[in-house]
Amino acid sequence: MPEQILVLQYSDKAPAGVIGEELIRLGADLNTKNLLCGDIVSKQELSQSQGLLVLGGPISAFDPAFEIPLRLTTEVVSYFHQQSRPVFGICLGAQLLARAFEQPYRANNGWETGFTQLHLTEKGKQDALLSGLEPLPKLFEFHQDSFYLPDGAELLIQGDECTNQGFRLGSCSYGFQFHPEVTATVTQGWASLLAAKDTGIEQEAIDKLLNSDTADFAAQKHFAQRLAQRWLTLVRRSQSLHQKNPVVAAASQG
Question: Can you give the residue range of the structural domain that contains 40?
Fold first, then answer.
């Protein structure tokens, strides 16, 4: 049977993109829930999902106006982590993964937007998802918040302006600050929305959304596809381990 991936989404303008397309191409089924639109996740959906993809969005991980869906997200993240089922958090999703493990709000002290050169740490060079993928291509950023690393987490990817760019907690819970999933169409859509609203975002940040190099999108797409392939392999291995020995699988997460 196809792997069932639960996708938590926070904006129709921030879809699973390249990551989702690659997971589907490889045979996975995606069950997408837009929590800001009132979607709920049933107990049956939780129990039948082998992996969790948590996407980005236009809100903060600590926005009091959306506390109910945000708290639901952290509960779902905690459930998957405790069950040793792989988690893949992107931008807001990474911040919510950190929040699920009791890390407080952290600002980035300004916008980080557009393609940015990031680097694997020594731990990242040894990681199951990232080993052999260096040097990293430039990766797309669009955030004004950041996150603190949860206790016991390994920093895998770092940047010069925003240090914490990718981490792993336990054996298979991952958070990435950058947006490996985006396409030029998506980022141009973000720019159009921002330009139409008085958001306070600097014009320079909007310009970077509109004027990114197509070669950078192509390089990031290739990286994102390989990331999705390796993550789905992790999902399949985790599922196989659960089927053989659920007690050992749960203990392996740590």
Answer: 4-112+120-131+143-182+223-241
How far apart (Å, rounded) are the C-alpha atoms in residues 209 and 231? 27
Burial class (CB in 10 A: 0-12, 13-18, 19+), 92: buried
- HEC string of 145-209 equals EECCCCCCCEEEEECCCCCEEEEEECCCEEEECCCCCCCHHHHHHHHHHHHHCCCCCCHHHHHHH
**Cα(210)–Cα(189) distance, integer angstroms:** 9
- CA angle 76-32-2, nearest 5°? 95
Pairing of strands 4-9, 173-176: unpaired
In this structure, are residues 107 and 145 in contact, taking their beta carbons and an 8 Å threshold?
yes
Radius of gyration from C-alpha coordinates of the chain:
17
Count the domains in the chain. Answer: 1
pLDDT of 253: 44
Q: Which 3 state secondary structure label does DSSP give 99?
A: helix
Distance between CA atoms of residues 105 and 100, nearest Å: 12
Please say whether the dihedral angle defined by the alpha carbons of residues 202, 206, 208 and 211, taken in this order, is positive or negative: negative
Q: What is the CATH number of the domain that holds 12?
A: 3.40.50.880
pLDDT tens for 82-125 read 999 999 999 999 999 999 999 999 999 888 989 999 999 999 99
Percent of the chain topping pLDDT 70: 93
| Residue 9 to residue 89: CA distance in whole angstroms | 11
